[in-house]
Amino acid sequence: MMVSVLVGRERSINAVNYAWDGGRILALIAQKQINTEDPLPDDLYGVGVLAEIVQYLRVPDGTVRIMAETSSKVCVEGFADTGEFLVAAVSSMHDVGHSDTETEGLMRLVRSQFEHIVHTGRQVSPEALVNVASISEAGKLSYAVLSHLSHVPVGTRQALLEINDDKQRLESLLKVLHHEADVLEVQRHIRARVEKEIGENQREMILREQLKAIQEELRERDDRGSEADEYRARIRDARMPKGAEERALKEVDRLERMPYGAPEGVVIRTYLDWLIALPWSTRSEDRLDIAAAAAVLDEDHYGLEKVKDRILEYLAVRQLAGDTMKGPILCFVGPPGVGKTSIGRSIARAIGREFVRVSLGGVRDEAEIRGHRRTYVGALPGRIMQGIRHARVCNPVFMLDEIDKLGVDFRGDPSSALLEALDPEQNAEFSDHYIELPFNLREVMFITTANFLDNVPPALRDRMEVIPFPGYTEYEKHAIAKRFLCPKQIRENGLEGTPVRFDDDAISRLIREYTREAGVRNLEREIGAVCRKVARAVASGKRTRLTIKPKDLDAHLGHGRYRYGTANERDEVGVATGLVFTEAGGDVVTVEVSLIKGTEPRLTLTGQLGEVMRESAQAALTCVRSHASELGIDASFGGLLDVHVHVPAGAVPKDGPSAGITIATAIASAATGRPVKSNVAMTGEVTLRGRVLPVGGIKEKVLGAHRAGLRIVILPAENERDLDDVPDHVRNDMEFRLVSDVAQVFALALLPPVAAA
Ligand code: ADP
Questions:
Q1: Fewer Cβ atoms within 10 Å of its own Cβ: the N or the C terminal residue of the chain?
Q2: What confidence tens digit (pLDDT) does each residue in 617-664 have?
Q3: What's this model's pTM, rounded to 2 decimal places?
Q4: What are the pLDDT digits (tens) for 206-237?
Q5: How far apart are the CA of 338 and the centre of ligand 1, in A?
Q6: DSSP per residue, 231-299
Q7: What DSSP assignment string belongs to 568-632?
């Protein structure tokens, strides 16, 4: 047979090398006791085999592996030590063969016993069986079987090798095999017993674990079952449209199937809570009694006649047309604090609806209006659906504040989402990204508010009916303070039981010296501040006057912040007073012009002027030059080519074309040396040829002029009709000069030249 031998000892390697280089014949002889020392002849058995090296391989670790084919059994006659290795003198041994039935029987027994060992034990590889099965010679069979029993002690195997009679050897081998089988049997028994013991312990442990898991699962299933049932009941109570209900129930099924604690469960629960909380078909009953509504509106707000009228009209149409009417979208435009929000609240009260308010200021992301898709972590519905949920009915008065402060950026255009919510053609099926189901917004009464219409996205502006809130006159503010703000603040500061009262003059002083605004928000705040001071004094038992007089304000609020009237006190050259329209309502601005000698015509503009105002100044300058001869000057202003226009006033950015005639007047004054009348204010756009064009915000500007103590106002003729909006008590105080050409302005505003000193 072929054997593979790993040769490690130096002496053995020497022997192998020697053989490999020569006749390639080795005597392979077993060592009686395995140890690492070099064996002496006495340590070796007397019988071995001859083998011819057929393959020689040097392994990197220094050892040598050889393949050798054994040929015959030999008996060692003697050893000689070369110093490098042992040399043996051997003589061949010859086995005695048999071919009788007994031998045949022995062979079969050996085969089957060997097979048994291979199957039960793990020491012999099953391939050995194939090898052994093909051998029909008794001697070869015994040696082959023997060669596979590597776990049998060497001594036992050597003894078998030394037997020369095949039959005897087979018998001995059979005994060895039987013994092996017994040992295996005993091993199996022991292993089985040990395994059983360990197994039982483990089994119990595993079963207990399983039991625990099952119990937990059952309890959660119960919990979840009852949670799911609860959800189902709530869904049915929520009176959703069919599609929504189906969807919600499907989500409940999903929740029920979900393993306990799955993060998705939270997402589904939040979603279901949203679906249930939305007022799909919960609505409040409208109170469509016009007279009663009018009473409510008057009760809450002073003035604002146009607004109230429009609201009553709306109610009247509703009453006649019923629910089929498409809700119009009202847009309240005006400066802060003029009551846009509070009248919205009043409207809701007047018709018996819920009121919700959502501010759109700073919204730049479409998702803030329409929600985030649920795949986002922490996704929520947009502000519209949040507002609806808050309202708890599907037909609230829904106020969208500050739509002029909507931004547009890379995250999508929020105004298009808003449009979808507001457009009566689309909003019956408003779809929020989070909710994913169409929600009917048709019954919602949307009201939007803005400070400036110009900043409202045009697409939105188209859908809305604009109702301007122009800002209050001092007279109106006085009335509002007396009738609404003072009682409200007295009430809110716990002074109801005390006879606190604001004197009329004190209110006037508050309006003039402590506030400067178109609305009444700061006024209300100042009144509140006074009330707090009084409350504190009352509570701490100090003596304090309960009727607030003008001089008490200094003690309570400090000195007034604003000076009443900013009109020029003297008639000056190169200084004209214009009227502007700002967020705080109408106001006056002074335009100053200086002419400086220069070689090149130049126009310098300062005072934070916007692009439109700069162009308007250019136009004004050209216009004055083209009117030079009428003014009795030359078009180059006698070499004063460098024109500097300055618009002071608090570094506030200013823009708009309406200062055109004011700038032209200031330039004309500077060029001619004729002073401008200080009690005249003006507004109007001017063309190159001197035509005066109409401008906006007349009512506010007139109110601003009036507040500033200016009594003569020059206005474009085409703005005449706007004067109807000016309250009578103001109009009666003022003189209006309507002009269509800049020459008329000059005639009205410029005094004769002062004699050169
Ligand atoms: P806006 O929404 O226009 O900025 P608000 O509605 O917040 O202004 O109004 C500010 C305060 O002024 C509120 O307390 C409001 O009640 C009060 N107010 C405004 N206008 C009137 C009015 N015409 N009559 C009574 N109170 C008013």
A1: C
A2: 999 999 999 998 888 888 888 888 888 998 876 555 666 778 899 999
A3: 0.59
A4: 888 888 888 777 777 777 677 888 899 999 98
A5: 5
A6: HHHHHHHTT--HHHHHHHHHHHHHHHHSPTT-HHHHHHHHHHHHHHHS-SS--PPP---HHHHHHHHHH
A7: -SS-BTTEEEEEEEETTEEEEEEEEEEEE--SS-EEEEESSB-HHHHHHHHHHHHHHHHTHHHHT
Lowest mean pLDDT across 214-228, 489-503, 589-603: 214-228
Residue 609 has pLDDT above 50, yes or no: yes
Q: Spell out the residues 6+ positions from residue 491 whose beta carbon is closer than 8 angstroms to its own.
A: none
Residues at CB less than 6 angstroms from ligand 1: 301-304, 336-342, 480, 484, 519-521, 524
In 673-727, alpha helices (H): 698-707
Residue 523 CA: nearest ligand 1 atom is: 12
Which of 355, 371, 393 minimizes the C-alpha distance to 239?
A: 393
- Nearest C-alpha to atom 10 of ligand 1 is from which residue? 337
Rounded distance, CA 456 to CA 36, Å? 99
DSSP 343-362: HHHHHHHHHT--EEEEE-TT
429 to each of 424, 432, 438, how far by Cα in Å? Answer: 10, 10, 5
Question: Contact 169/107 with Cβ under 8 angstroms?
Answer: no
**Residue closest to 149 by CA, chosen among 157, 140, 159:** 157
Beta strands in 406-487 (DSSP E): 430-431, 438-439, 445-450, 464-468
Selected catalytic residue, list 73, 658, 669, 677: 658
